[in-house]
Design brief:
Blueprint (H helix, E strand, L loop, with lengths): L4 H7 L5 E2 L3 H6 L5 E6 L8 H15 L3 E6 L21 H15 L12 E4 L1 H4 L4 H7 L6 H5 L2 H8 L6 H4 L1 H16 L3 E5 L3 H15 L4 E5 L12 E2 L2 E2 L9 H9 L3 H11 L4 H13 L5 H30 L10 H7 L5 E5 L8 E2 H8 L5 H9 L3 E3 L2 E2 L6 E2 L9 E6 L3 E8 L1
Parallel strand pairs: 2-3, 2-5, 3-4, 5-6, 9-15
Antiparallel strand pairs: 1-6, 7-8, 10-13, 11-12, 11-14, 14-15
Amino acid sequence: MTTTFYEDLEARGLIHGASEGARELFASGGRIVGYIGFDPTADSLHVGSLLQILALMRLQRAGHRPIALVGGGTGMIGDPSGKASERQLLSRERVEQNVAGIRAQLERFLDFSGASGALLVDNHDWLGSLRLIDFLRDTGKHFTVNYMLAKESVSRRIEQAEGISFTEFSYMLLQAHDFLELHDRYGCVLQLGGSDQWGNITAGIELIRRVRGAAVHGIVQPLITTASGAKFGKTEAGTVWLDAERTSPFRFYQFWLNADDRDVEHWLKAFTFLTLEEIAEVMAAQQANPAGRAAQRRLAEEVTRLVHGADGLARAERATAVLFGSRPAQDLPAAELLEVFADVPSTEVPRARFEGEGLSIVELLAESGVASSRGDARRLIAGGGVYLNGERVADVDRRVTLTDAIDGAVVLLRKGRKENRLVRLVG
């Protein structure tokens, strides 16, 4: 039995709300054109946007036509949905830079080839030349202030001391106008988004009903949260971006690998294309051996491969193996090693001391603080508890030279299983 796009989302727990008739829309068997908008608040999307990207991918894989709308126009205004205070307005130049960055990312996930391929559009193409008087007459007249005040994105802000500016108050009408424009240009009959977009989406549905007499639909997905109550996509290091320059494949992989046991099944359903049967098998393996964290490893593999490709996944897995001591540090370039151990204490030692015969491992352990003294260093080595670049040191007379320095820049020392220290060669 074939599962429709709507039924697949529903089975994965990814429908928070839908307009009347949305399920039947997909049961009809015709090709649906649907869109999601992405605000260009930065030049990269982050993992919080990934659920919406995947929704467009699922739509396309189900045989429908997705439209990715980049808000080059609405980005000049700012969406108040889910925000407690006014967004900082961005310059046109900054918005254009952000749109370009987001456009390049979206092209990695969707197939834009052929007459029925995905579409990537910028609403500045029509909003940028929109005349205020025309907008007020053609769009604004269809909405009462009472209607707009009742929307959660507006009512919540009115309750705040800062209130809401007319600029952001108008955002709902601009998004409604976008839906109408896409309906007229491309036959778009569906808008998807997060649950915080429900008010904006229903405004578009209402506008199209009034001015075109057509029935269009909306589906909103739940906002992802963590079981611990932390904001999804945030770590101690900050936002988890899709751009490898902002968040490396290793850091990205670690974010998913560290998923809470309470979250991992839901995240497998939401962020991967694994079937529900495959996910059930992964969760059975997890239950049989919780310490093996099979579900987290599969989640990290699937999402990292999706975002960073096979090469990015291989780099992330290699770096993770070095982090946990199952691969030698020489397997990584110095730059990646420094990133993996960015939070590890480090010691600077003049490069000249590693030249020629170098310096003794005992001396280096004591100077770097891995050992409390040279005597302590000898005892640690004799007990098999010292590692140089991931390999156990067996000889107390071992010398450390430039040949041991990875890329001539760094040496990794470890005491026991977890206590690492970097030695940076300087000068």
